[in-house]
UniProtKB/TrEMBL annotation:
Pfam families: DHO_dh. The active site is at 129 (nucleophile). InterPro entries: Aldolase_TIM, DHO_dehydrogenase, DHOD_1A, Dihydro_DH_chainA_dom2, Dihydroorotate_DH_1, Dihydroorotate_DH_1_2, Dihydroorotate_DH_cat, Dihydroorotate_DH_CS. It is found in: Cytoplasm. This is Dihydroorotate dehydrogenase. It comes from Candidatus Woesebacteria bacterium GW2011_GWB1_38_5b.
Length: 311
């Protein structure tokens, strides 16, 4: 028997594969579709204080090996997700994960406080969205990250983690890890989409999406290697004290296996869920189990983080 269960922030998950916040998780109907799938948790859309329409359409496009989006955080406002968490918790036996992306420090505090009285199992703080027009990617501003994490740590009574934008420079990995280690952060999720890509249709000579002159976050297979490097580096820097969740280009059991080998305790599926539908969760889980059987690994800790070196 192969066991692919895991824990994130000490919360038990029956499998290490669940949905990423973002794709098709805005409405209760969408969340119930995830609840009925093999996703081991139900992650809700990043929410803000007020409901948001998001950016003008078209704002998402499938690409051959992934996606580009500049959704702009369309969501129903945090009160809806507090209520959805109660309904989902009653109806389904699965952890429910809130994702919070307040526009200001005060908004974030209010939203975190509201979820304290909800049944969500843990919270993913998302200061890494590249798509909010007029706002920088907060995860690249270490002083602002520090200020936000300090405030959120005070306000939040639930276990929480941070979804990070991708980092590309050794110095930045170390700087952000230093800030995170100051606070009771239980996990990091690596990575949000690679911000501000531009996809051009040569036929129409136009960008594929409308917001920001066509610039949006790139997801899917294009970002897998950057995501793996981020998982690996944070796994090493946190030394097992903070869980790492991997996300970016996971379409198969092999992808999930590689992320766990790099140090991930769980993986999330984003673009592939939109493109392949809810069967993707069972597919990735079954393929991962088959790889483990062949390699004679019985549980994730048999190989998690144990990436070998080239001698
Ligand atoms: C969006 O709604 O723009 C995507 C959210 C994110 O990139 O974090």
């Amino acid at each position: 028997m192969v066991d692919i269960s895991t824990t994130i922030a000490s919360v038990k998950l029956d499998s290490c594969v669940f949905n990423a916040s973002g794709p098709a998780d805005v409405t209760l109907a969408e969340l119930e579709k995830i609840a009925r799938s093999k996703s081991s948790a139900i992650t809700m859309k990043s929410c803000t204080l007020e409901a948001r329409e998001g950016n003008p359409e078209p704002r998402y496009a499938d690409l051959i090996d992934g996606s580009i989006n500049s959704m702009g955080l369309p969501n129903l406002g945090y009160k809806a997700y507090v209520e959805f968490s109660q309904l989902l918790n009653k109806k389904y036996k699965k952890p429910v994960v809130a994702s919070i992306s307040g526009m200001t420090l005060e908004d974030n505090i209010r939203i975190f406080e509201a979820f304290n009285d909800s049944p969500v199992d843990f919270i993913e703080f998302n200061p890494g969205s590249p798509n909010t027009i007029g706002k920088p990617i907060v995860g690249y501003d270490m002083q602002l990250m520090d200020k936000l994490l300090k405030a959120v740590s005070k306000a939040c009574k639930k276990p929480f983690g941070v979804k990070l934008p991708p980092y590309f420079d050794v110095v930045h990995f170390e700087e952000v890890a230093k800030v995170i280690k100051k606070y009771p952060v239980k996990f990091v999720t690596c990575i949000n989409s690679i911000g501000n890509g531009l996809v051009i249709d040569p036929k129409t000579e136009k960008p594929l999406i409308k917001p920001k002159g066509g610039m949006g976050g790139i997801g899917g297979k294009y970002i897998k290697y950057t995501a793996l490097a981020n998982v690996r580096r944070f796994y090493e820097l946190f030394n097992g004290k903070i869980d790492v969740i991997g996300v970016g280009g996971i379409y198969s059991g092999v992808d999930a296996f590689e992320f766990i080998l790099a140090g991930a305790s769980a993986v999330q599926i984003g673009t592939a869920y939109l493109q392949k539908g809810p069967t993707i969760f069972a597919k990735v889980q079954n393929e991962l189990k088959n790889i483990m059987k062949k390699k004679n690994y019985k549980k994730l800790s048999d190989f998690r983080g144990k990436l070998k070196t080239l001698d």
